[in-house]
Design goal:
Elements lengths: L9 H16 L1 H26 L3 H25 L3 E3 L6 H34 L6 H10 L13 H9 L3 H33 L2 H7 L6 E3 L3 H11 L8 H16 L2 H6 L5 H16 L1 H15 L5 H15 L1 H14 L6 H7 L1 H14 L8 H12 L7 H25 L2
Antiparallel strand pairs: 1-2
Helix pairs in contact: 1-2, 1-12, 2-12, 3-4, 3-9, 3-10, 3-12, 4-5, 4-7, 4-18, 5-7, 6-15, 7-17, 7-19, 9-10, 12-18, 13-15, 14-15, 14-17, 15-17
């Protein structure tokens, strides 16, 4: 691996800064020019790797990762958009908390991306009379991130670990106490926040929220296309067969879904287009940061780092570098500070370190919009529905620090402090 100049991390920092401040300071300008900013900064980094480092294999690897990412996200977006769930208009705090709990379980079967794309629209409709930013943010916390901690299917970092050799059921066997703790704390906090919001709503709104309606499901044949996508996740050879199967499922869903279902879901391609453009810039500009991390992680962590070092280190960087590549970076560092050469040896020598990396990557992926792929997708759909969403920094200061951080601290104190 070629060693990048640390100054080349600057385009990534500029892009993060633009995503954080531009929508707040110059929203109209950002809406018109975000594509030029993201792709322009990405082009700077790509040019550096191509003409200065001459590291073509690294560019091809990143291109493949981006293609796999956007095809998975896009195909799930299209297929889930073909399923319309008519919800009960019963968005009381307890009903909402139960919905999020179910979403946390579903995330381990459909993945956080699949669960988020399938459930975000009915979640918004369920709370349509009083939907606020906290409904969307806690959905991101629980369904799009923390809930998917029990299986390799649940979240991209865990799937990467599975591909590296981590046994499928090792995750569920070892992560369930953290899952119960994290999901339980977040649900309790959400219930308290949502109850305050519910009691503050006018009496007429509360009566509408508790009105009795019936559940209705349209577009259920799309569940077959969803199964194809989930099955394709486990296909690794030949190259791009996995992506081809996902695209085929998305195309099949698009042409077989009745137009009335897409209309009922207010479906259009703007959210996935925005995500594709921004993450193209993110994947390109974060290459120097990830490569620098891989080259220096062992010296930064020390000879015998405690599990908490891996938990906080993986977590904090996962919130800004995307949790999947950060997981791999710290997994390589864990190999470096042990004598292990393969995953079975690592599980024997330092299972606590691997557990800390796994939980840190999944849980901290909820800390920012870019920590995990589905986060920005959920935000884009909420923006499309005109729901007032927090800016990048508001997300961190108004929600992550007061609500998510306490759950992370408890998980650290109970399981990784030693």
């Amino acid at each position: 691996m070629a060693a990048p100049n640390p100054w080349m991390i600057l385009p990534f920092a500029v892009l993060l800064g633009a995503m954080a401040f531009a929508p707040l300071r110059a929203p109209r300008w950002w809406l018109r020019h975000y594509a030029r900013v993201a792709l322009g900064l990405g082009a700077v980094t790509l040019g550096y790797y191509l003409f200065v480092l001459r590291d073509t294999p690294r560019l091809l690897h990143t291109g493949h990762d981006y293609a796999s990412f956007i095809v998975l996200i896009g195909s799930l977006f299209v297929v889930s958009g073909g399923v319309h769930i008519g919800v009960k208009g019963e968005a009381t705090p307890s009903a909402n908390a139960f919905f999020l709990f179910v979403g946390a379980i579903v995330a381990n079967v459909l993945g956080t991306t699949g669960a988020a794309m399938l459930l975000i629209r009915p979640w918004i409709r369920m709370n349509r009379y009083r939907v606020t930013a906290h409904h969307i943010v806690f959905f991101i916390f629980i369904v799009a991130n923390v809930g998917g901690c029990l299986t390799p299917i649940g979240d991209p970092p865990l799937f990467l670990g599975y591909l590296q050799g981590v046994p499928f059921w090792w995750i569920a066997k070892n992560c369930w106490p953290m899952w119960v703790t994290g999901v339980g704390i977040l649900l309790a906090i959400f219930y308290a926040v949502d109850r305050i919001n519910f009691l503050r709503a006018p009496r007429g709104v509360r009566d509408q929220e508790t009105a009795r309606e019936t559940w209705r499901f349209d577009g259920l044949p799309n569940l077959c296309f969803l199964a194809v996508i989930l099955g394709a996740v486990f296909v690794s050879r030949p190259v791009f067969l996995r992506e081809a199967l996902m695209l085929a499922a998305a195309v099949g869903s698009w042409f077989t879904t009745p137009k009335s279902v897409h209309v009922a879901n207010d479906f259009n391609f703007h959210p996935i287009r925005e995500v594709a453009i921004l993450f193209a810039g993110i994947f390109a500009t974060m290459m120097p940061a990830l490569d620098w991390l891989n080259l220096n992680a062992q010296s930064l962590l020390g000879d015998q780092p405690a599990p908490g070092v891996f938990f906080w280190g993986t977590g904090i960087l996962s919130s800004t570098l995307d949790n999947a590549p950060t997981y791999l970076g710290f997994l390589n560092a864990l190999f470096g500070v042990t004598d292990a050469k393969e995953i079975p040896e690592l599980l024997h020598q330092n299972p606590a370190g691997l557990l800390a990396i796994s939980v840190g990557a999944v849980f901290f992926g909820a800390a920012t919009y870019i920590g995990n792929g589905p986060n920005f997708m959920v935000k884009a759909i909420a923006d499309q529905r005109k729901i007032p969403m927090p800016t990048f920094l508001d997300f961190v200061f108004k929600f992550t620090l007061p609500f998510l951080l306490p759950a992370l601290l408890v998980v650290w104190l109970l399981f990784f402090r030693g």
